[in-house]
Amino acid sequence: MVAAALAAEVARVSLGAYYSDIHPSRALRLAPQSPEALIATAMVDVGRAAANSSAPDRLTFDRLRLAAAAAPLEPEPFLVQGALAEREGDLARAESLLIQARWRNPRSNAARYLLADVWLRQNKIVQGLNEMAVLSRLLPEASVQLVPALSQYAHSPGARDKLAGILQQNPQLKRPLLNALAADPANAELVLALAGADSRSADPAANSWKARMLNGFVSRGNYGQAYGLWRNFAGLPGNASPLIFNGEFKSSSAPPPFNWSYSSSSAGFAEPENGRLRVLFYGREQATLASQMLLLVPGAYRFDAPFGGTAIGGALTWTLSCINGAKQLMQFDLSKAAGGQFEVPADCPAQTLTLTGNLLDMPRDSDVQIGPARIQRAGA
After folding, report:
1. Over residues 71-81, mean pLDDT
2. 50 falls within a domain
3. Nearest Cα residue to 247 out of 363, 355, 103
4. How far apart are CA 286 and CA 37, in angstroms?
5. Residue 223 shares a structural domain with residue 265
6. Is 250 contained in some domain?
7. How many beta carbons lie within 10 A of that of residue 21, not counting itself?
8. CATH code: domain of residue 225
């Protein structure tokens, strides 16, 4: 009889644990003292209260207290009490309770998120950001929410060293933060300090923040500063200053705009191939296929870009213009010429060299291999 009674009790509690996830109220009826059933039912009540913007009722708190007494290692009672304490403005009590919840379940997203929020509201910035950084590892989509907070904190006195420590422990946050900070050229020094070896990384994923920073300087007309940064990214020797970069169209980790930018779309594509530029263009729509920014000083020059393959007349055009678009310096049909002469005036501090695919009345495919591309001073 004792064995049968014990078996029945075990079965009842087991069923309570089973139903606590799928049917909390039934679990509570089966096992009213089961911690799992008490917690599951209480959390349902908490959810309803939150949806109505109200506090849980006394019965819910009674269930949480019973669950905490029966299963002191469960985090939910501390989590709920901590969240309510934070809502009521009692941040010290909320901090204590949420630390207990986190200790009981270090992988609790809710505990870490609420604790980080409490610390940030208490102006414990580094602790809050570190907690959010851990959360971003548990919940990768949280990284998106953390980056703006990190960006704002980056401008605080003494933040650089602390941010470096956070990024060292949480490398997944590094490039999103660099990308956010790079939007403002005023952050250049900070971005480079935080980037460290990433500024010379050959990983194409690193080019996003580099291109954003360079484009920020270019958009403000600071071409010299942009080029100086780009040389650092590209690893160019101090005495190297080519009139055109990578005219052999080699694979390179150097980012645009002072290296080639290539396009691939429904219009066609341009990509490096065996030391030349392979271009396949269908003639069905207008498209920029390749481009590079130049910083040619005033004077006369010649551009050459020999090609092989099939080029339909009028389909592919080389154009050189001042970067502000006010003045076109050179244009020629690739099918009719392999180069042309041009002159850079004094009021044209930066230029854009572009290979354009043109919409044709009767579309036909152009398939060419271009290169090497060269720019020389006229008479050189």
Report:
1. 65
2. yes
3. 355
4. 65
5. no
6. no
7. 11
8. 1.25.40.10
Burial 331-363 (b: 16+ CB within 10 A, else e): ebebbeeebbebebeeebbbbbbbbbbbebeee
Same-domain status, 133 and 50 = yes
Three-state DSSP class for 137?
helix
Range of the domain at 36: 2-234
Q: Are residues 320 and 202 in the same domain?
A: no
* CATH number of the domain to which 334 belongs: 2.60.120.260
**Residue 335: what residue type?**
S
Q: Considering the domain boundaries, does residue 246 fall inside one?
A: no
* 3-class SS shares of the chain: helix, strand, coil, % to 5: 50, 20, 30
Please tell me whether the peptide bond between 56 and the residue prior to it is cis, using omega within 30 degrees of 0.
no
Condensed to tens digits (0 to 9), the pLDDT of residues 19-64 reads 344 444 544 455 455 555 545 555 555 455 545 555 555 655 555 5
Q: Is 308 exposed, middle or buried (0-12, 13-18, 19+ CB in 10 A)?
A: exposed
Given a cut of 90, whether residue 293 has pLDDT beyond it is yes
Partners of residue 341 on adjacent β-strands: 302
Q: What is the pLDDT of residue 129?
A: 74
Q: Which two tokens stand for residue 265?
A: 């779309």
pLDDT band at 114 (very low <50, low <70, confident <90, very high): confident
* 3-class state of residue 127 by DSSP: helix
Whether 226 is covered by a domain: the verdict is yes
